[in-house]
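Researcher: We are triaging several targets before committing to wet-lab work. For this one, the compound of interest is magnesium ion. I'm pasting the protein sequence and the ligand SMILES. What I need is the predicted three-dimensional arrangement of the protein with the ligand bound, expressed as structure tokens, so it can go straight into our comparison scripts without reformatting.
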Amino acid sequence: MARRVAIGNNKGGAKKTTLAVRLAEALAKARFRVGVVDLDPQGNASRRLGWKDDPNDPPLTTSEAIEANAEGVAAQVWQPIGWTADYAERIVLMPARFTLEDRATEAGQRGAYRRLAKALKGADDHLDYVLIDCPPSLGHLTQMGLAAAHYALGSTEPEHDSVEAVVRYRDFVGASGEDLANPELSFLGVVVSAYDMRIGAHVGQLDGARKLFGDAMWGVIPRRSLITNADEYAQTLDQQSDSHEVRAVFENLAQRFVKEVPAA
Ligand SMILES: Nc1ncnc2c1ncn2[C@@H]1O[C@H](COP(=O)(O)OP(=O)(O)O)[C@@H](O)[C@H]1O
Ligand SMILES: [Mg+2]
């Protein structure tokens, strides 16, 4: 079984998807085999990884994997991503489209919160890591992600509302293991993204986050337009000019990830 990590924050714009996509990129470059589960009906991770939906022949997505309520069904859903870099062949995707929203309304059905875990059972043994990109909520979809995960990682901007929301995610993870029949679930730490030292509020919030999270502060990603551009154009960081510094930041983050989450 791959080691599964749910990336979350109950606020939108907290750079969760960027963290999932760029961590997948850095891990694949380091020769790990990575699965990305897009658990957000917005499907941002899917699009940024270059995946394209086909309305004439719609591929299976996270929504169908959950709806099937069947062990191991994820094996039929993994798809290649659209990037052409050589390391992209080590990333597979469980894509999402807006219909994933329909699964959120099924929270009341018996055992619904276990359905992603069930879908992944035996279906990620060929992978080292699975990164689950959660929606900006602590609702049913995120709970399904947490029920399937071994670990949770928080993402935040260095701004008050975002830090408050990642604390909420951390506390929710800490309190939910038993309820989600996943008592081993543990919170790894927090990544602060889009830090701009010219903004006084960022300096203050980063300082506060360091005190608040201590060793669980995993790292700081600077605010850089090339990150927005790579996401916008569904490209790799390698394709952006002058991306050396940013690539090094994500590669360092991937090193910490591998240390704290040893591949099985
Ligand atoms: N370090 C960064 N510097 C600049 N822009 C960033 C950075 N990280 C993420 N972004 C951009 O911020 C926006 C929101 O990020 P996103 O990952 O979609 O957040 P979330 O998934 O938490 O809603 C996206 O346009 C993304 O490209
Ligand atoms: Mg997102």
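Researcher: Any quick observations?
Model: The longest helix spans residues 160-176.
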